[in-house]
Write a structure and sequence with these properties.
Layout: H1 3-25, E1 32-38, E2 41-47, H2 50-70, H3 72-76, H4 87-117
Antiparallel strand pairs: 1-2
Helix pairs in contact: 1-2, 1-4, 2-4
Transmembrane segments: 7-29, 49-71, 96-114
Organism: Chryseobacterium taiwanense
Keywords: Membrane, Transmembrane, Transmembrane helix
């Protein structure tokens, strides 16, 4: 299995696990939750539906990154002026970087609201 597919798959599995966990705990979450924090603590509040908005934004970002990873020649073009020894290595490196970015994005989005769920 290719490394970028494995890492990107972890992002998707993490998002799915978070969705299941949120779905199970959703009824026990307070109706009004903090949605913005500043140096002095929470200063913005909203409905608990915003938790699903985070899931939606995360899913859209994963979809966009997945399209770039899946179709790298369309995303990066038919260039030959890469710093890597071959275009194949350059595309592989970019796929790995994008998959790591997708994992970081998913960890951030899931971690932001985990305190409100637990």
């Amino acid at each position: 299995m290719k490394l970028h597919k494995f890492i990107f798959g972890l992002s998707i599995l993490l998002l799915l696990a978070y969705c299941i966990f949120l779905g199970i705990k959703f009824s026990s979450i307070q109706e009004i939750i903090p949605i913005h924090y500043s140096g002095e603590g929470s200063d913005g509040f909203g409905s608990k539906i915003f938790l699903w908005l985070e899931v939606g934004i995360n899913a859209v970002l994963l979809l966009l990154i997945g399209l770039i990873i899946g179709y790298p020649k369309k995303a990066f073009g038919e260039r030959t002026d890469y710093l890597e020894p071959s275009p194949k290595d350059a595309i592989k490196n970019r796929q790995i970087i994008l998959s790591v970015i997708s994992l970081v994005i998913t960890l951030i989005f899931c971690g932001l609201s985990l305190r409100e769920i637990i």
